[in-house]
Amino acid sequence: MTETTTERAIRVGLAGLGRFGKLHAAALGAMPGARLAAICDPNPDALATVGDRYDVPGRFASFDAMLGAGGLDAVFIVTPEPLHAGQARQAIAHGLPVFLEKPLAFSAAEGAEIVAAAELAGVPLQLGFVLRFDTQHAIVRDEIAAGRLGPLVSLRVKRNCSRAWFPDYGDRVHPVYETSIHDIDLLLWYVGAPCVRVQAVERRVSGLRYPDGCWALLEFANGAVAMLETSWFVPDGAPANVLTPDWRGTIDAELEVVGQRGSARIRLLDGGVALWRPDYTAVPEIGLWPEAHGQIGGALRAEDEHFLACVRNGQSSTIASAADALEGLRIAEAIVEAATSGQPVDLAPPAA
Ligand SMILES: NC(=O)c1ccc[n+]([C@@H]2O[C@H](COP(=O)([O-])OP(=O)(O)OC[C@H]3O[C@@H](n4cnc5c(N)ncnc54)[C@H](O)[C@@H]3O)[C@@H](O)[C@H]2O)c1
Questions:
Q1: For a tag site, which of 102, 138, 179, 216 has the least CB within 10 Å?
Q2: Has residue 185 been placed in a domain?
């Protein structure tokens, strides 16, 4: 973010200090032009650890208390997924710009209400679609936009995660809203046409509330076809590419885009660094939230900086648009419906 020394730091409140909230805290706690002014989490240990590390003056056990105390210019919501919609509404009602981790909501109708509320209040609302800020994914997008791949024919997206993480997510969020929502967003960004038809299958293996695998076939209005896969069965022995102090395991994500003239692919496990540790092998992911010299960099830092620039300018994000987030929810909803019913779902064109 460019700024002059006379500009006041943006006072940020951060809700949720779990695996991912701690990463946002690390990015925001060291960001020029930002001040981590308040944090909230019902877990007192997390409040003390993060609060002391980044010298945060406001520490609250609840979101209500944090908003009620005032003195904030923006909030980051990094709480469990079922809380997102309600907390986003509350923050917008306080006139605060909102950075909201995915998903926006669990239904397109609820998502539309929140986007409309943000527009009415005139506050920026940005979703945590961190892959749009990742260099590799942005290069593929530029390649497509420049026409070098030609018209897109086929896309394949996979996001499989460590089995050990599933107990934490399997009772609180359908995998389509947790993992595939990133890939749905990438598909919208790359294909540039609405999805018109969805077929899907899901499997429940672990006996938790939500399925631990879901596969979908998506047809787009311009003829492109996408295959989407997510499951939570990566074993503990797989090379670890997520290596934060509180969170270790593997995101096995791949993407392939085939156009009439060229193709592009990304494999998240193809990192440049390999660490053979005594007890496990690691291939640290270096694009998304790498830590070096005690600072978080990469796409996560870039998305946080971008949001704060939007707050400063009073504008909505042009990179991670709320309209695409809504369209992604419509597709996610259709995937769950198709997987549950076993029938294809036709999607009407999005509202103009
Ligand atoms: N973009 C990505 O790649 C990515 C990766 C991981 C997680 N996430 C997202 O980040 C969010 C958090 O996920 P996580 O893995 O950190 O979960 P987590 O379970 O590790 O952490 C959630 C934290 O929220 C706290 N919390 C619970 N209720 C709260 C409340 N009412 N107010 C404030 N805090 C509350 C919990 O005590 C916990 O510390 C989710 O939306 C998830 O989808 C995004």
A1: 138
A2: yes
